[in-house]
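Z., the sequence and structure:
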Amino acid sequence: RVWAAPAVLCNFAILGWLLGVQHTRAVLWLQLWMNGINMALDVFFVLKLRWGVGGAGLATAIAEGSAFILGMWMVHSILKKFQSPSLDRTHIWSPAQFKRLIAINRDLFIRTLFLISAFALLTIKGAQLGTTVLAANAVLLNFQLFTSFGLDGFAHAVEALVGKAIGIRDDIMYRDAVRISTQWAALVALFFAIIYAMGGRMLINILAAEPQVRSIAVHYLPWLVVLPLLSVWSYQFDGIFSGSTRSREMRNSMFASFAVYAMLIFVLVPLFGNHGLWGAFLVFMLLRAVTLGLSGWGYRPSLS
């Protein structure tokens, strides 16, 4: 796995580039290839040859390496279709451009660190309320995970479309991309809320076997019914701001939202228990959208 690390990092860059140039089908095929190879080699190395954990690690390394080769071939094929006959290497190695790249990555790293910390804090405080509550919260977090799978697609789409609109400084394209993708994302969020309201108990029974865990999860299910309707806006704004490379605003928004979230947890959990914990998390997701929305109010690509 250590030797596969360079391929893993390169694959991140390749996937990001493919999304940026709106070749999402290539992203799908690349992911299917990598995960398919990984699963097939896991079966062969671990079950057939009985190489254990080492076999699993080798399978993943080979899958990542083969995905890197396939991804580079995809990039090369797409670049040949561009009008420019060759890459401008002086632009690629420009110190100013490299400094900007590092700054964007730094801001996004800090932003992601706070996001991971928010979920970690939810787990830590849930554990302090008891192992059964912790298990129920873990079941309910799968609902948020399912929601993110549905909404991330719209966030990636608006990210690529906004980036293109800003690149050519087209206000109309920018507004259309934001409006249409947000409308569809909101509809999908409403769909998730309805599914959780009508079939949430059934999903909990599928995800949890312990009766007490099921009972507690059902008790706190209403929070997860509301959550898609409020978290959809943070997903959309993340895509819009990522596409416009406004990473500093994303970092500051996440920091402010996390600070309020942490304070609310230490105030609400002693008063309301797990209800206070989920309430604080819901406010955190909403604040992410509000702070980014205020930062992006009135933004026009033609003036950037």
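The mean pLDDT is 92. The first helix runs from residue 5 to 20.

Let me know what you think.
H.
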